[in-house]
Design goal:
Chain B: The chain crosses the membrane at residues 27-45, 57-75, 82-105, 117-141. The complex is a heterodimer of chains A (577) and B (148). Chain A is of the alpha/beta class and 577 residues long. Chain A is 51% helix and 15% strand. In chain A, helix 13 links the parallel strand 9 and strand 10 (315-319). Chain B is elongated and about 55 Å long. Classes of the chains: A alpha/beta (577), B mainly alpha (148).
């Protein structure tokens, strides 16, 4: 990249350099042809090339030592006047060209791109490429940064890049201002880098996300690819070529809403476990079962109707377009007015979804409906994060924010892949069992969303435990991973959620479960508890303490104390003899 | 190097017309390369130790034209462009060395254009001539390779 900057500069400097060479040559040549004069006024032969070049060199750079080696004749002075002006023009032209080149946007872009590529190349730690740093991308970047995962961002809009640079990230975020749909930009962002772990296609343009997913799949098949999508046909297209995860926020939210109506405790669990860690636990709102009204039959409205209908919820749709083929009861009209709402039976319905793609309309629908029926459970679709203030002021029972949903899903996929497996298993649980787990989590972690993490008992992630299990065939119970390494009688605020062994799942494993090498575990806990557990997994001395309650000495101390014990034993034997 | 440019220009043109369309940049480029070689040749030709056969103004002209040719070759990343540039740099180096030998003999030691000095100046510029010939050969090769 550096060389291309160099070549670009050289190319641009061609004309000024040639002008300079010609001016120098003409000035020097002139001086070697014009006769001089000596002190007596007698003509002398012209300057030699050497003297002429010397004179031009110091005159052209405006150093100006005077008339050397002898005072000039008038003819020489005339020529020198011309050559001084020529050389000033030549130098100004060169310097202006150089400055213009440095200031030129294209040149700066080349410089920036070069620096970006170099820094990506030097990245030594695992990182994710986020394509599109809009609302969603920024949320994910922030959360990943908090988890200590590096992020490389590719964003088309320059303003967003500037915003990104102003953000307070703990690690430097590498941002490239380019179109992510073009494969060469992805390559520059480190698609083939060996530390690259995955690609997140988070632009608000489905076709761009599709392009990113295909490019990543073809160029680096080993990467984890997560794509955001709004249209079902593009979703199907992405799944067909093996994108690992496709997050359709409309579908996802509608599915959650339907599940929440059917089993509120399951949804509460999802809320608790997939929230952004460390944030306050959201207030609990259980959507009631009964008749629902959906205002707006766009992509989101359709997804809601499809998912709710599957669970046998009675539905009425309000949409101004009379030609819609709606499978359920359809009222033609605007949801923002009271009459169509009454016509749709809002007075008797239990819930309402304001699903249009206009935030103002959605709020208006929600307020009007509440006036008609004050007990209504209102779900509002929020299209833009910028309107957060309005939605906070309104305080709906449920607010559907696409960027939040996508960010939550992506984070869960990246930071703890076991979580989606666990949540899938929980779907089959009875309400009572889910409620019990919700109670335990709320009891353990108070008002904060817990951190969710996965542990694999292998030599890389848990060296101490792995060594003890494999080399010394010791028995370790799961409970020992829940003890405080500073005081082993104290339990850590950690909840084991899932144990995966040989692809078999054990939900909520108890403390007596014996661990085996290769086990995968999913925990929920506080950030401090995660760090403490990590210490136990990594450090042999800490592990021994947690298991036995004894501080095993270090290697050197152990050797010494062993020797002294042996020595005293020998002494004792002698004494007895 | 210029062949790339010429090629992109030529693609759009109708085959019969394009031969009429001359690329001015290409003319200038070829002109300076050939002129550098011819001036160099003009200075070198003659008895190697006879100062009468080697005029210093010709050396000056050769240096200036060579420098311009070098600058014209700047900023081309192709393989042939790189070789072009390096031959020019070699020629510049040899010619400047020749000029330095002349200046030292003339002004520093005061020896003037003796037979030894003339020989040394001319042989240095003969080396530059070789580099210039390579440059011309490259130019011809590039032109021949250019299929339209």
């Amino acid at each position: 990249m550096n060389s291309s900057v160099f070549f670009l500069a050289l190319r641009r400097m061609r004309a000024p350099l040639i002008v300079l060479i010609v001016i120098y040559a003409v000035s020097t040549l002139g001086l070697t042809l014009i006769a001089g004069v000596d002190a007596q006024g007698q003509p002398t032969p012209p300057m030699s090339f050497f003297h002429a070049f010397y004179f031009v060199s110091y005159t052209a750079t405006t150093i100006g030592f005077g008339e050397l080696p002898n005072a000039f004749s008038d003819a020489q002075r005339m020529w020198v006047t011309v050559s001084i002006y020529l050389s000033v023009v030549g130098w100004s032209y060169s310097i202006i060209s150089l400055l213009a080149l440095v200031q030129e946007k294209g040149f700066q872009q080349v410089l920036l791109t070069g620096r970006f590529a170099r820094r990506v190349k030097l990245l030594g730690e695992p990182f994710y490429i986020i394509c599109g740093c809009g609302e969603t991308g920024l949320l994910i970047a922030r959360a990943l940064d908090r988890e200590g995962i590096r992020v490389v961002a590719v964003e088309r809009n320059e303003l967003r890049i500037q915003e990104l640079e102003l953000e307070d990230f703990s690690a430097d975020i590498l941002a490239l201002c380019a179109d992510a749909a073009q494969p060469q930009h992805l390559l520059m962002a480190g698609l083939k880098h060996r530390s690259c772990r995955g690609v997140l296609a988070m632009t608000d343009d489905d076709s761009a996300n599709l392009a990113v997913a295909i490019a990543s799949r073809l160029i680096s098949p080993r990467l984890r690819i997560v794509a955001r999508v709004a249209s079902p046909s593009i979703e199907a297209n992405m799944m067909s070529f093996g994108t690992h995860y496709v997050v359709n926020h409309f579908e996802k939210f509608a599915d959650y809403l339907a599940q929440a109506i059917q089993s509120p405790n399951w949804y509460r669990l999802v809320d608790l476990l997939t929230g952004l860690p460390g944030q306050e636990i959201p207030e609990r709102h259980d959507p009631p079962a009964g008749d629902w009204v959906v205002c707006g039959y766009g992509r989101f409205g359709q997804a809601v109707v499809r998912n709710l209908a599957r669970h046998g919820v009675g539905l009425t749709v309000i949409d101004p377009d009379p030609n819609l083929s709606v499978g359920v009861h359809h009222i033609v009209g605007q949801g923002t007015e009271a009459a169509p709402l009454r016509q749709a039976g809002v007075e008797t319905a239990v819930g309402l979804v304001a699903a249009s793609d206009n935030d103002t309309n959605n709020l208006s629908i929600a307020i009007t409906a509440k006036e008609v029926n004050a007990d209504l459970f209102v779900v509002v679709r929020q299209n833009r994060v910028a309107n957060q203030v309005l939605f906070d002021a309104y305080d709906a029972d449920f607010t559907m924010v696409p960027s939040r949903i996508v960010a939550r899903e992506c984070l869960a996929l990246i930071t703890s892949p076991l979580l989606s497996r666990f949540l899938h298993l929980v779907r089959a649980w009875s309400e009572a069992r889910a409620a019990a787990l919700v109670g335990r989590i709320e009891g353990l972690f108070g008002q904060r969303v817990p951190v969710i993490w996965g542990v694999r008992l292998n030599a890389a992630d848990a060296p101490a435990v792995h060594r003890l299990l494999v080399m010394e065939e010791a028995k370790i119970a799961l409970g020992s991973l829940r003890r405080d390494p500073a005081a082993r009688q104290e339990p850590l605020p950690v909840l084991p959620l899932l144990l995966v062994r040989d692809d078999r799942d054990e939900e909520l494993p108890d403390d007596e479960t014996l661990l085996e090498a290769g086990d995968e575990l999913l925990f929920a806990g506080t950030r401090a508890a995660k760090a403490a557990q990590n210490l136990t997994l990594d450090n042999r001395t800490v592990l021994d303490y947690v298991l036995t309650g004894e501080d095993t000495p270090g290697w050197l101390w152990g050797l010494l104390s062993c020797n002294s014990k042996a020595a005293s034993r020998r002494l004792g034997v002698r004494r007895r003899v | 190097m210029l062949s790339n440019y010429a090629h992109t220009v030529g693609v759009a043109a109708v085959p019969g017309v394009e031969r009429v369309l001359m690329n001015l940049e290409k003319v200038v480029f070829g002109f300076f390369i050939v002129l550098a070689a011819t001036l160099n040749f003009g200075f070198v030709i003659g008895e190697i130790d006879n100062p009468m056969h080697h005029h210093i103004y010709e050396l000056f002209a050769a240096i200036v034209v060579n420098l311009i040719a070098t600058v014209l070759k700047f900023g081309d990343r192709t393989q042939i462009g790189a070789v072009h540039l390096s031959t020019s740099l070699v020629a510049d180096l040899q010619l400047v060395a020749a000029a330095c030998v002349w200046a030292i003999a003339f002004h520093v030691t005061g020896e003037g254009m003796s037979r030894e000095i003339t020989t040394s100046v001319v042989s240095l510029s003969a080396g530059a001539l070789l580099a210039n010939i390579v440059s011309v050969v490259l130019l011809i090769a590039e032109t021949v390779m250019l299929r339209r």
